[in-house]
Amino acid sequence: MQLIYEQSTPGRRGVKLPASDVPVAPSLPESLLRAERAGLAEVSELDLVRHFTNLSRRNFSVDTNFYPLGSCTMKYNAKVLENSANLFAPFHPMTALLPGGVELCQGTLGMLYDLGQLLADITGMDEVTTQPLAGAHGEMTGIMLIAAYHASRGNKAKKKYVVVPDSSHGTNPASAAIAGYEIITVPTAPYGDMDLELFKKAMTDEVAAVMMTCPNTLGLFNPHIKEISDIAHSHDALMYYDGANLNAIMGKVKPGDVGFDVIHVNLHKTFGTPHGGGGPGSGPVGVKSALIPFLPQPRIVMDDDGLLQLETTNQGTIGRTANFFGNFGVMAKAYAYIIMLGREGLIRVSEQAVLNANYIKERLKPYYDLPYDMTCMHECVFSASKQLAHGVHAIDIAKFLIDRGYHPPTVYFPMIVKEAIMIEPTETESKATMDAFIEVMIEAAREAELNPQALHDAPLTMPISRLDETKAAREQKVCCVG
Amino acid sequence: MATFFTKEHEWVTVTDGIGVVGISDHAAHELGDITFVELPKIGAAVTQFGLLGSIESVKAASDIFAPVSGKVVKVNDALDSAPEVVNESAEGAGWMAEIEIANESELKNLMTQGEYDDYLKTL
Amino acid sequence: MNDSHYCPHTPEEIAEMLSTIGVASVEELFAPIPTELRAKTFNLPAGMSEFETYGRMQELAGDNTPGMVNFIGGGFYDHIIPAVVDHLSGRAEFYTAYTPYQPECSQGTLQALFEYQTAICRLTGLDVSNASLYDGGTACAEAAMMALRVTGRNKILIDGSVSPFSRQVVKTYLFNLDVEIVEIDPLDGLLNRAELASLLDDSVAALLVQNPNFFGSIEDFTAVAGQVHGVGALLIGSVYPIALGILKTPGETGIDIAVGDGQSLGNPLSFGGPSFGFIAAKKTFIRNMPGRIVGETVDKNGTRGYVLTLQAREQHIKRHKATSNICSNQGLCALRGLIFLSAVGKEGLAELARLNRDKAEYAKARLAAIPGVTVLQVAPTFNEFTVSLPKDAAEVVAELLKAGIAAGVPLGQYYLGSENCLVVTVTEKRSKKEIDKFAEALQSELIAIHF
User: Fold this and answer.
1) What CATH topology corresponds to B2-103+112-122?
2) Cβ atoms within 10 A of the Cβ of B20, count?
3) What is the ipTM of this complex?
4) Is C422 left (phi over 0), alpha (psi -120 to 50) or beta?
5) Is some CB atom of chain B closer than 8 A to the CB atom of C321?
6) Which domains does chain C carry?
7) Spatial contact of A191 and A159, defined as CB atoms under 8 Å apart
8) Per-residue pLDDT at C1 exceeds 70
9) Full-prediction pTM beyond 0.90?
């Protein structure tokens, strides 16, 4: 397909701008002006509409395809959430920061406050900041809160390490590194969780935090979690909960009850807000009371009259992790989702997410190697090791699925499973959809034995076949020159 | 002239106190199509098994460790524009740096070609 | 209540699935969670229908005072959004997809991001752009961290006329690292160049400036770029994308890394987000860029296509050694930015920029004519300017809010000694009539005080 720039005709416009009703100002000095116009597209509105409509048709999406991308919780995104967020489009964030402004923003501040309360209940935390803009941003914020906590106790120099299991999301060590910590990685035991004995050996008083995903990226709930957090606490290390997999446990277990001190929640995973082709997400962070003094500012608090206020007098604060109040529009969708589903609805979400993952796991077990064969939570991780014997990699199976209209499961992660196929169906998929997917997965396994070349050649039905990623990385053509 | 290997799959060929360093054919094959080699700076002091540089392929990144301590005296600039040479000839034209070896006794910490071949069989 | 619209199984289907799994109940699947760890309470309210949910959201939106006439900016700006932006970005194939890990079934997102990166490069006059960051403030922080990596140094200088919010975000990002941050107090609302000269040495990784700055002043940083490069440091410029319709580009200025907030490009105010951050740089820094980058390549038949590239920089491969921890970005907002820029187009963006400036210059003249009101700037301005009032600007703003006018951002809370100063923003959306009304309201407010 042509690029939008390749469809340009000089002088053409996609929108008519308002006419000026004021005098033309004298021009700025030449030294402050750009020499040439920015080389943006010059197309009509219809050209623009056709271009982006046709582009959109080159995507798989939740609304068009089953999208069991493990670790990403690609559930259906209710349409009323979009309508709800649009209600808040006109409100300027600076209004709340003006003298007398909070009174004009009680609705938006109230929603953020309520969302914080609901998330605190779901996660078992005492207070939530809505400022972090995505999951990894929440992780970074959370680890900074932990750093500020240790610093306040005179332990800044002493606390040097953050412990992560080798099954963790890459964002965990990356976020801890930004917050100034070195990483200790603990291997996974044959039972599918962080090796408890090795963990004990790794723990010293120099550890600032332990970052865990629970259930972990293999989809397994760690039964030793309380013991792990007790050990961490005995070294004055705090427990960080990566909320990426919260969809499995709502109403069943609260991270705050099992010893976690800080949590981020991915609203775009668990709470039904769309993923936007890569974002925006939203990553509110919940903390236990000991960490409240360090929360980012401004902090939304309720005064004695029930009015929301912005508190900026917190001396211990880590400051500000984003310019305003977080991804408000995303939070409005998540808030609508939570109040719409309510207590029973969220419990059912987790139950059926877990049911669906176990169903797929059981049905595919005869055909694919299951390195950790036990009851899983919301996702299951197979390995294409059987198929590899025929020269077929997980990525080949992924490409075969594309030809059959399925977005592939996650195949590059977790790193600890060779040729991983990580399937997360989510609760919104019907049995019929999953059954059809299972049949295609079985067919892929059969093809791997009988006709591996067919898998190597896939996909054949897309506008493009497999791309030369090496060429892209070596040539680095990342914008259109001209 | 003799060639030695590390467990991290670097090699060093020693001639007159200068070690030519690169990654093994095995490592290059494991990484897949190499897209970038980060070379050390000339004059940099490196220590045995300490960081020397890094290497990237499409889906992996890996550190390169110095097989011997010493001073970097030459680097293979050609890899900047043609990292694929490492895939084509990891133990030849794909060399990465020359190190003026500080202490030849460190070579005893490395494997000979025969030992390395045996080591690869255990992986 | 029946949630089968989002959890579709019938009881019969559930029974069938349980039997396939070989358990008696769904509860049995939660057996790996020890009983003593189970949630003891779960106090969420009962759910409600879609209709009631929307009603509750309307109620909340109604609790905000509507219809404010905005003369406030401070990083978020009240600009027009062509209807096509909502319609095209609202296509579910875009907004219900995720990060394009599988390029063959994600060419829509990938090509759009490539076009976005192209737009950002052309707007900034720089060579490479990523596929978006979170917002303008975090983009400043990512650029600072990038400069620390590139130079191997550990000091960042920040012009005090950079947005106080962005400065705070940079400080927060770097607070637990071994990095020194030095803020340079502005002089006459501009970068204090004498002080900069005294601070520049070979320990400095970068200087962060903003153009136009928080007070609205436009500066030419070309000479500053030369000074900064003279000590081997980088110049980071936070820029306003609408202003780049006419203003000298970061590339022309010699800026090494340009960042900014893309809210103005087709994203609603939405109480502060989501918007997107952009980052563009000279080609030589590409391996130190944070976040996703889309690159062009070909498939095995030679057909042009797009992939995520240079992924070895990123957290999912390099973990703690990654250039950033960012994973999810603001892709959909960046797509809105691209659609906005493509709708407005090459000539249109310049026209829009001039329109902003014309309106602001008109407002500036109107306000300056009010007794006791003085325009503080000597430097030229774009669509924001700073006036000094004969009394505390915070009080004036609070009064005018009651009349439905958000008069501007009082500087006192961000700059000591600036209690009487007000930063006023005028975008293309403000009509002459609204500006006149604002000037009249301000005049009566000030007269009321005088008597």
Assistant:
1) OB fold (Dihydrolipoamide Acetyltransferase, E2P) (2.40.50)
2) 20
3) 0.98
4) beta
5) yes
6) 69-78+347-450 (3.90.1150.10), 83-340 (3.40.640.10)
7) no
8) no
9) yes
